[in-house]
Specification:
about 625 residues, 14-stranded parallel sheet
Length: about 625
C-alpha cells in the first residue's frame, strides 16, 4: 500500500502535491547512478550524505553524472567532473558514464557497467554490489587458494541489481505473502495474502516499482507472472523475506517450458532468494522475457533446468528464435538439475517413467535465444546433463565467475550419449556472437569442460567468442568421452582462448571439425598463453581446422608431442610453445594454481593480448615482471 502523509499527499518519495512544502533531500529516495541506455535500475552506489540528507561529496570513482530518483523525468543530475557538485542537464540521459562501457557490448570490456583499474581506464574505486547480490562464499572447496568474490581487487567491478528495498522500487509499495494469510486480504504486513501466484497475477494491485515480500515457509504452487514492471517506473521485485521454499504441486507431471516460477512475454522483474525444489520440469522458466534479474536462488532436484530463459512458442531457428533480451542470472545455486532424467530412452528401450529425451530436459542453467545477458557468480553442481549452456542465438553477453562441478553425470556416459560439456556455448539454429567467458572454475565433470560448437550447420553459426582466465580441471573420463578441457568444433570462427589454466583433463584442448555436425571447419582460432598440464590421454589435438594460431602455451612433458594433428588442417601457426617437467603450481594436490617464484610460466607469455585479458584471475595487472605470465594467474612476489 502506498504511504500517505496527510491530506492530498501521496508518496512523497516521487511525485507529490506536497513537494512545495517539503525538504526534498530529507524525504525523497536515495541518490544513485543509473544508466538509462540499458534500461537498468539504480545500480547500488550510495552518495556521501550528511545527517539531513544533503550531499557532502562525490567519490572520484569514474561516475560522471548522478541523478536523483525523485526528480521524475527531468534530466537533473550532479556533475562530478572537475570536482563540481553543480546540477547539470545531460543531453542523452547518460547518467553513468563509464568511458565507453555503457552497453552490454562495449568495445573495451563487454560487461555491463564495469570499470577496470590500473589500465588507463578510470575505475569504480571501492564501489561494490550489495552483499546479497554478490556472494561472500569462496571456491576454496575446489581451488586450494580461497578466492573471495567480494575482494574489489580481483576483477572489474560488476554492478548487480540491488535488493535493498529503499533502492529497488520507486513507489515504495510493499506487499506481503504468508502461509497464514488469505488471498481475500489486502496484502499488508498484518493482513498478508496466502499464495504467491495471487500476488503476481494480472489482477493484483502490484504495479511497476513495487515489492512483494514472501514470508518464511513452504509454498506448493505454480507461480505465473501475470504482469510486467517498467523501465522507467521500476522493476517489480519478488523476494523471499527469509527461508522460503517453493515446491511443484505435481512433481511427476511436468511438461516442456513449465517452471514453478514462470512467465511468458513479461519483463522488468527481480526474482530473489527462493529455494525451489522437487519440480517436474524447470525451477524458474522465463519465456520471451526482457529486463529480468534472477538472483540468490537455490534450485534443487529439478526435472529439467534449474533456471532457463527460452522462447515461448517459436523454435524454427533464425532471428525469430531470439526472443529474450537483457537478462541477468546472478549468484544462484543450481543443484541436481535434470534429476529425473535417467538417460537416453531410445537406447535403453524405455521411457524412464515418462522422462526421456523427447521431454527436452535441457541443461542445468540454460540461456536460449537471449540478446544481452550476464550469467555470473553462480554455483552449478551435480547435474545429469550439461551444466551452463548458452545456446541458439544468444549473443552480446558474458559468463563469468561461475563454479561448475559434477555435471553430465548421466549424459557423459554410454547410458546418456557420452557427451555434455560443463560449460557449453552452442549455436544450434541461430547465430551467436560477442560472448565473453572468463574467470570460471570448471572442475570434476563427467564429460568435457568448456566447449564451443554449433550443432546445426547452415542455419546458425558461432563467432567472436573470448575465453580467458578460466580454471578448467579434472574433466572427462578416459575411454568414455573426449574429456577436453577447452574445445572448439564445427561452424565456429573467431575464437580467442587466452591465459587459461587447464589441468588434469583427458586432453587439454581439442580443435576438431571432424564431428558429425557438418558445415564448415572451425577457423580463425587463437590459443595463446595457456597452461595445459597433466592430461591423461594427450595434451591437445587439432584436426579439420583452418587458420589456427597456437603460441606461448606451456605443456607438461608427459607426452612426446606437445600436441597432435590430424587430417584437414590448414594454416596452423605454432611457435614459442614449451614443455616442462613441472609448471610450478603453488599446491597442485590442493588445486592451488597460483605460480611459485621458479615457475617456467613466469614472463614466458605473449604481450599481444587484448585489453579484456590485461587483468588476471585475481584482478592483478598482467606484466608484473619482465613480461606476461602464462596461465590464469600472474605471479606477484
Amino acid at each position: 500500500m502506498a504511504n500517505t502523509l496527510g491530506t492530498n499527499l501521496s508518496g512523497v518519495s516521487d511525485q507529490s502535491s506536497g513537494l512545495p512544502f517539503l525538504d526534498h533531500f530529507k524525504t525523497a529516495s536515495d541518490w544513485m547512478p543509473q544508466n538509462s541506455k540499458i534500461g537498468g535500475k539504480p545500480q547500488g552506489i550510495q552518495l556521501d550524505l550528511d545527517e539531513t540528507g544533503w550531499v557532502k561529496s562525490l567519490p572520484n570513482s569514474g561516475v560522471i553524472t548522478w541523478q536523483h530518483k525523485g526528480l521524475g523525468t527531468q534530466d537533473n543530475g550532479l556533475d562530478s567532473s572537475n570536482n563540481s557538485n553543480l546540477f547539470s542537464h545531460t543531453q542523452d540521459k547518460q547518467l553513468l558514464n563509464n568511458y565507453g562501457n555503457d552497453k552490454p557490448s562495449g568495445d573495451i570490456d563487454r560487461d555491463v557497467l564495469t570499470g577496470i583499474k590500473d589500465n588507463g581506464t578510470k575505475g569504480l574505486g571501492n564501489i561494490q554490489p550489495k552483499s546479497d547480490t554478490r556472494p561472500e562464499s569462496t571456491t576454496s572447496d575446489i581451488l586450494g587458494t580461497s578466492i573471495n568474490f567480494s575482494d574489489p581487487t580481483r576483477e572489474p567491478a560488476v554492478l548487480a541489481a540491488t535488493t535493498d528495498l529503499s533502492q529497488s522500487n520507486n513507489s515504495e509499495n510493499v506487499y506481503y505473502v504468508s502461509p497464514n494469510g488469505s488471498d481475500d486480504n489486502p496484502g499488508t504486513l498484518d493482513k498478508p495474502w496466502k499464495t504467491v501466484n495471487h500476488a503476481v497475477n494480472e489482477k493484483s494491485p502490484v504495479k511497476a516499482g513495487d515489492t512483494i515480500l514472501v514470508q518464511p515457509g513452504t509454498y506448493t504452487e505454480i507461480i505465473t507472472l501475470g504482469k510486467s514492471g517498467d523501465s522507467n517506473l521500476g522493476d517489480i521485485t519478488l523476494k523471499a523475506n527469509g527461508d522460503v521454499t517453493l515446491r511443484d504441486p505435481d512433481p511427476k507431471s511436468g511438461f516442456f517450458r513449465e517452471g514453478v516460477i514462470q512467465s511468458a512475454g513479461k519483463g522488468n522483474w527481480v526474482i530473489d532468494g527462493f529455494r525451489i525444489e522437487n519440480t517436474s520440469w524447470a525451477g524458474i522458466s522465463l519465456r520471451d522475457a526482457y529486463n529480468m534479474t534472477v538472483q540468490n536462488n537455490h534450485t534443487y532436484e529439478t526435472g529439467a533446468s534449474g533456471i532457463i530463459v527460452m522462447p515461448d512458442t517459436y523454435y524454427e531457428g533464425g532471428e525469430g528464435e531470439v526472443t529474450s533480451k537483457n537478462i541477468k542470472v546472478l549468484n544462484n545455486t543450481v543443484e541436481r538439475a535434470s534429476w529425473i532424467w535417467k538417460g537416453n530412452a531410445s537406447k535403453q528401450g524405455n521411457i524412464n517413467d515418462g522422462f526421456d529425451l523427447t521431454t527436452s530436459t535441457q541443461e542445468s542453467l540454460s540461456i536460449w535465444g537471449v540478446d544481452g545477458f550476464e550469467v555470473a557468480y553462480n554455483t552449478v553442481k551435480e547435474g545429469n546433463r550439461e551444466g551452463i549452456d548458452v545456446k541458439t542465438g544468444s549473443r552480446n553477453g558474458s559468463v563469468h565467475h561461475n563454479t561448475v562441478t559434477g555435471q553430465a553425470i548421466v549424459s557423459g556416459t554410454p547410458d546418456g550419449y557420452s557427451g555434455g560439456p560443463a560449460l557449453y556455448v552452442e549455436g544450434n539454429r541461430a547465430d551467436m556472437f560477442n560472448i565473453d567467458v572468463y574467470n570460471n572454475v570448471v572442475a570434476n565433470n563427467t564429460a568435457g569442460g568448456l566447449v564451443i560448437t554449433d550443432e546445426v550447420p547452415n542455419q546458425g553459426d558461432v563467432s567472436d567468442i573470448r575465453v580467458y582466465n578460466n580454471i578448467v580441471l579434472d574433466n572427462g573420463k578416459d575411454g568414455v568421452n573426449s574429456g577436453q578441457g577447452i574445445g572448439v568444433s564445427s561452424n565456429v570462427s573467431d575464437v580467442e582462448i587466452v591465459n587459461n589454466t587447464v589441468d588434469g583433463n583427458v586432453q587439454g584442448f581439442l580443435i576438431d571439425g571432424s564431428d558429425n555436425y557438418g558445415g564448415y571447419k572451425p577457423k580463425n582460432i587463437l590459443v595463446r598463453n595457456n597452461i595445459f598440464a597433466n592430461s591423461s590421454f594427450r595434451n591437445g589435438f587439432v584436426e579439420d581446422a583452418e587458420n589456427v594460431t597456437l603460441d606461448h602455451n606451456l605443456f607438461t612433458n608427459k607426452f612426446e608431442k606437445l600436441y597432435e594433428t590430424g587430417n584437414g588442417v590448414s594454416n596452423l601457426q605454432a611457435e614459442n610453445n614449451t614443455q616442462t617437467d613441472s609448471v610450478g603450481f603453488a599446491d597442485l594436490e590442493g588445486n592451488n594454481f597460483n605460480l611459485t617464484a621458479d615457475s617456467p610460466a613466469i614472463d614466458a607469455g605473449s604481450a599481444a593480448i587484448a585489453d579484456y585479458a590485461k587483468l588476471d584471475y585475481n584482478g592483478k595487472q598482467r606484466g608484473q615482471g619482465k613480461g606476461v605470465d602464462i596461465g590464469a594467474y600472474e605471479f606477484q612476489s
